[in-house]
Amino acid sequence: MNTIKGNKQQRYCLCGYTIWVQYNLAEEVSDTVFWNQENSGSSINKCPVCRKKLDIDNLS
Q1: Strand ranges, E, within 1-60
Q2: What is the domain count for the chain?
């Protein structure tokens, strides 16, 4: 399987909190991973500040 793990992009939740986004692209499966820090930390699925579920279309 051919997998691409790209660098993280800085985005912002609607509340203003910084969210780091990483796209993992493969031939069969694509995935978007949200992180609370650029170089370390944990993957997240809700904003730690406002607790809204993260969606790439709602981040600026």
Answers
A1: 3-5, 9-12, 18-26, 30-35, 43-44
A2: 1
- Asked if 8 and 44 touch (Cβ cutoff 8 Å), the reply is no
What is this structure's pTM? 0.77
Interval 8-29: pLDDT, tens: 899 999 999 999 999 887 777 7
Q: How far separated are the first and last CA of the chain, in Å rounded?
A: 31
pLDDT at 3 over 50: no
* Range(s) of the domain holding residue 23: 3-58
Question: How far, in Å, CA of 40 to CA of 31, rounded?
Answer: 19
